[in-house]
Amino acid sequence: MNGAQALIRTLVDAGVDVCFSNPGTSEMHFVAALDDVPDMRAVLTLFEGVATGAADGYARMAGRPAATLLHLGPGLGNGLANLHNARRGRTPLVNVVGDHARSHKRLDAPLESDIDAIAGTVSGWVRRSLSPADVAGDAAEAVAMAKKTGIATLILPADVSWEEGAEPALPLDVRPRPHAAPSLIEGIAKVVTSGEETVILLGGDVMASPEGQLAAARVAAGTGVRLVAETFPARTARGAGLPDLHRLPYPPEMAMAALKGTKHLVLAGATAPVHFFAYPGMPGHPVPEDCTVHVLSLPGENGVAALEALAELAAPGAEPKVMERETPELPTGKLNPRAMAAVVGALLPENAIVVDEALTSGAGLTEMTSAGPRHDWLSLTGGAIGDGLPMALGAAVACPDRPVIGIQADGSAMYTISALWSYAREQANITTIICDNGSYAILEHELTRVGAASDGERARKLLDLTGPALDFVSLAQGMGVPASRANTAEELAEQVRHALAEPGPHVVVATLR
Amino acid sequence: MNGAQALIRTLVDAGVDVCFSNPGTSEMHFVAALDDVPDMRAVLTLFEGVATGAADGYARMAGRPAATLLHLGPGLGNGLANLHNARRGRTPLVNVVGDHARSHKRLDAPLESDIDAIAGTVSGWVRRSLSPADVAGDAAEAVAMAKKTGIATLILPADVSWEEGAEPALPLDVRPRPHAAPSLIEGIAKVVTSGEETVILLGGDVMASPEGQLAAARVAAGTGVRLVAETFPARTARGAGLPDLHRLPYPPEMAMAALKGTKHLVLAGATAPVHFFAYPGMPGHPVPEDCTVHVLSLPGENGVAALEALAELAAPGAEPKVMERETPELPTGKLNPRAMAAVVGALLPENAIVVDEALTSGAGLTEMTSAGPRHDWLSLTGGAIGDGLPMALGAAVACPDRPVIGIQADGSAMYTISALWSYAREQANITTIICDNGSYAILEHELTRVGAASDGERARKLLDLTGPALDFVSLAQGMGVPASRANTAEELAEQVRHALAEPGPHVVVATLR
Asked: Where exactly are the structural domains of chain A?
C-alpha cells in the first residue's frame, strides 16, 4: 500500500477515526486513500481554522484525538489560532500537514514555507515523515504523543504519501497519567486542615469530571477550605447534583478580590493563575504576596485520583454540598444578556453540550444554567477568538446524540463563520445563538481598562460593527443553515425551543443592541 | 508622548499612512493613539487574513507599504497565509504585532505565544521593541526594511505602547534598487544576439511597468528572442499599446512545452521557474536540461533599467510589437467561464484594477482582456488561496479613483469572506464576480494530475461544495454589500455594467455550474 493508505489505517487502528480536513494538491493521495479506509470519517471544512477548532471540540468531548488535514504552511497558519486554544486546553490532536514532495523542497516553489517552525509554536511533538516505510510508525507515535503532550504535528511530504512500500503500524502504549505520591497527599492534607485561609483551584481533568468535583466538595465540606474553578476550563461538568463552583473572574480587580486573604492556594488540575493581560499599575497575577502555592496535581496528571485520596485523608466521611435542581423562569419583554441567559437556562435540555464564546454577552449565563440538568460546558481556553463555532462542530461530531448549544459573540463569529456550512453539510444538531450587540464590546471594556480611554471617535469606530450591521440570518442561510432573529425574550424562547426540537443545525440571532 | 503615538507618527512621516487593523486588548493604546495622529487611516477588518491581504494589494498598487495591526501570535497566525502571498510577491509591508507587556511575558498567560518564531517564517526583518525610547527608531527601520526585504514585523509590547518617553523618529534613507553592471548587460546582449533559441522570462518590476515590457519587446523585435511572462506576476500592466505577453503555463506539461528547445533562459525580474507542485514521474521544473539560465535581473533589482540598457545595446532602433485595441463582443446565452471572460473583456473600463483569483474559472480571462483598455492585473503569487477579496480591498484603498474588479473562485472566497464587510464599511468601488462552480474544481484537476484519480465517492465528496450550495448573494447581503446572481451571459453583462456604474461595492454571482 502507499504511504497515505498506511497512514490512515494506522490512525484508525490507534482510535483516530475522524479527520477534519481542508486539503490541497499535496494532500490528494490522502484524499484518494479515504476510499480505501472507510473507517476514517473525513469532515470537510472550508477554512483550516474550522478544522483545527473542530478537532479541539471533538477531543474535549470524545476524550481521544481527531486528526486534521492541512495544506502546507499557509494551511497550518490558517489553523494556528485554534491550535493555540487547543494547546492551552491541553487537547490531544494530531495534525497531518501535507508538504511538497521531498525532491521539490529544495526548489523553493511558490508554496514553500517553514512548516516545521510554524508547527513548533503550538505542538508538543513535530515530525517530518522521511519515507513511506516510516510514515505508519510516525503516525502511531503522533497519536501516542498527542495523548501525552497535546498537539502532535506530522508533516507529510506528497511523495511519501503516494509512494508504495508502506505498511500499517500498531498503536503504541500510552502510560496512564501519573498519580500523586502518598507523601504529597499527606502534605496537602496538612495544608487544608491547617485552619488557615485556603483555596483549592480546580481545573483540567477535575473540572471535566463529576467525580473530581465531588471529591473536591468533600474536602471543602470536611475542612472549610474554599473551592474556586480556573477562569477558562476546557471542559466543565455542570448541573444539579454537582457542587456550585465559581470561576476565578477574568477582570484583574475581581480576581484579586476573589483570592484576597488566601494564605494557601492548592492547585488541582490547574496552574497558578495569572491575569489574561497586563494593565498599567496592576500586578500580573491575582495571588496575594503572602500566599503559598501548593501543587496537588498539574494539568496532565491525575487530579481526580489525587482529590479522592485527599478527601479520604483530610475529610473522611464528609458529605459534599451539591446543588438542587433549579431552573430560571422564562423571561419576557426586552432582550438583554441576562434575559438571553435565562432563556438558555430555562430551555437547557438534558445532557446538552454548551459551547461558550459569548464573551461580554455571557453575563448571567453560567449562573442561570448551573443548577439545571446535567450538561458539559466548553470554554475558550487560549483567548484566540473564533473557537466557538468550530468547537461546536467537533462536539456534535463526537456526540451525535447530544444536543449542542453554541452561545456565540458576533465579532468572534466572523473569524470562522464558514463553520456554519460544515454544520449544514454534516446536519449537525447544533443550536447557535448569535449575540448580536453590534460591537467588539469586550474591546470597549479593554480600551477603558488599559487606561487608553479616549472619547476619540476614530478609536471608537475601530470597535464598532454596525457600519454596516452584520445580518447573521442572511449569512447562515447563505450557508444552508435555517436562521431567525429574536428581538424579544419571548421570540428567543420560541425560536430556541424550535431549534432544539428539530434535527440539524439552526442559528438564532439574539438582538442585544 | 507614549510609544503608540510616536510609532504612528513615525510611520506616517515615513509614508505609511494606512493601517489594516484587527486589534485586541494589547493594541488598545495604538487604537487610542489614532485620534492623536489623524493622518493615519485605520481600516477595520473582521479577520486578520483580510488585513494582511489588503496590505498586500495596497502596496502592489500604491508602491509603498501599508501597516497591519495584529493581536499576538494567534492574530499573526490568522494573517499568515496572505503574508505568505505577500512574501512571494515581494510586497513591502509593515506588520505591527501587539504582545503582552514586558513584565507579563514570563507569566505564560493564556495568550502567550511565540510571535517571533511565527513572524520569522514570512518576514525579512523582525524586531521586538524593548522600550518606548526605541519604538520610533524601530518603526523607521521597519519601513526601510520593508522597502528593501518585503515584510518587516515589529513586535510591540503593550507597555512599550502605553509608557511615556517616546519621540517620533525621522524616516531612514532607502537605497535605490541596484542597476545591472554594464559588463552584465554586454554578456546578455551576446546571448540574445547569438541566434540560439532564447527566451527572456519577465517578472516582478518588469511586468508591472509598461516601460519594462516595451523595452523587452524592443529586444524581441530586434533579435528574435521570445518573451514569456512568469506564471503569477504580482502586478502586470496590460492592455492595448503593450506587447502581447503570455505567461508560462501552470500545468507542468504545458510549461515544459512552452520552454521546449530553449537553449538560453534570461531572467528579467524573475527567478528560474519551478513547477508549483511535484507530480509522480515528472521533473520539478520546466527548464530543459541543456538550457543555460542567465540572470539579467532578479526580483528586487532594477529590471526595467536593465532591459532598457539591453535594448539599446542588442536591438538599437527596433520597434516593439504591441497590441492594437480589441475587445470581445458581448456574449449571449449560457454562462460558462469563457462567456464570463468575454463579459469582463467587453465591459472592462479604462484604468481598472483586476484582482484575479478565478483559478479554474479563469479560462479565457487573460486572453479576452489583454488588448482592452489599459489596466493593472494582480495575481495570487504564493498559492495560498483567499488572497483575492482582501487584495481588492487594499487596491481600492490605494486607488480610490480607479474601478476594481475582482474575479473570485467560490471555494477560495470562503477563506476571507468577511472582506466584504470591510468593502461595505469603506464603500470601496469594487465589483466582485464570484465564479460559482460549486466545487474545489482545481483540486479535482489535481486529484487526477497527481495520479491519485479514483472513482471513490468519498474522495470526490471532499472536493464538492454543493452539499449545501453556497449562496453568495445571501452572504454578501449579510455583510451589507448589494448582490445579484447571473444565470446567463446577458444577465451577467447587465449586472456587471450596473455594478461598475454605481459607486460602492457590488457582488455579482456568476452561475458556472
From this structure: 3-162, 182-314, 337-511
The label of the residue with cell 461580554 reads A360
Among residues 306-345 of chain A, which lie with CB inside 8 Å of chain B?
none
CB contact residues (below 8 A), chain A span 214-273, against chain B: 232, 271
**Preferred mutation among A5, A48, A70, A78 to probe B, highest tally of B CBs within 10 A:** A78
Question: Which chain B residues contact residue A105 at CB under 8 A?
Answer: none
Instruction: Give the pLDDT mean for A298-310.
Output: 96
**CA distance to partner chain A, nearest, from residue B448 (Å):** 9
* Count of positions (residues) in chain B: 513
Neighbours of A182 (CB within 10 A): 10
**DSSP secondary structure code for residue B106 in this structure:** G
User: Which residues on B lie below 8 Å from A158 (Cβ)?
Assistant: 277-278, 450
Q: A241-253 pLDDT, tens per residue?
A: 999 999 999 999 9
Q: Where does A3-162 sit in CATH, by number?
A: 3.40.50.970
* Contact between B235 and B205 (Cβ < 8 Å): no
Q: What is the mean pLDDT of chain A?
A: 95
Coarse DSSP helix, strand, coil percentages of chain B, rounded to the nearest 5 percent: 40, 20, 40
Element (H, E) at A511: strand A506-511
Taking the Cβ of residue B113 and every Cβ of chain A, the question of whether any pair is shorter than 8 Å is answered with yes
Burial class (CB within 10 angstroms; exposed 0-12, middle 13-18, buried 19+) of A75: buried
Q: Which residues of A touch B389 (CB under 8 A)?
A: none
Cβ distance B118 to A120 less than 8 Å, yes or no, reads no
Q: Which CATH number fits domain A182-314: 3.20.20.140, 3.40.50.1220, 3.40.920.10, 3.30.70.1340?
A: 3.40.50.1220
Element (H, E) at B121: none
Residue of B nearest to A31 (CA): B459
The pLDDT value given to residue B59 = 98
CA distance B121 to chain A (A): 6
Q: A141 and A172 in contact (C-beta within 8 Å)?
A: yes
Share of chain B above pLDDT 90, in %: 89
Q: What pLDDT is attached to residue A362?
A: 86
A463 in contact with chain B, both atoms CB, cutoff 8 A: yes
Partner residue opposite A414 with nearest CB, options B47, B75, B443: B47
Q: Is B80 on the interface with A (CB under 8 A)?
A: yes
Given 3-state DSSP classes, what are the helix, strand and coil percentages for chain A, each rounded to the nearest 5? 40, 20, 40
Q: What is the nearest CA distance from B350 to chain A, expressed in angstroms?
A: 30
- Under CATH, which number does the domain A337-511 receive? 3.40.50.970
The reply to whether B191 touches chain A by the CB within 8 Å rule is no
DSSP annotation of B102: G
With an 8 Å Cβ cutoff, are A111 and B74 in contact? Answer: no
Residue B205: phi, psi to the nearest 5? -65, -25
Give counts: helices (H), strands (E), chain B. 21, 17
All three cell numbers of B372, joined, read: 482592452
Decide the pairing of beta strands B506-511 and B151-157. unpaired
Residues of B in contact with A457 (CB under 8 A): 35
Please give the Cα distance from A510 to A405 (Å, whole number).
14
* Separation of alpha carbons A421 and A43, rounded Å: 11
How far apart CA A147 and CA A140 sit, in angstroms, is 11
Give the gap in angstroms from C-alpha A429 to the nearest C-alpha of chain B: 16
B3-162 shares its CATH topology with B182-314: yes
CA distance A83 to chain B (A): 9
Taking the C-alpha atoms of residue A57 and residue A235, their distance in angstroms, rounded to an integer, is: 9
B325 exposure class (CB count in 10 Å sphere: 0-12, 13-18, 19+): exposed
Confidence check: pLDDT of A454 > 70: no
Q: Is the pLDDT of residue B409 over 80?
A: yes
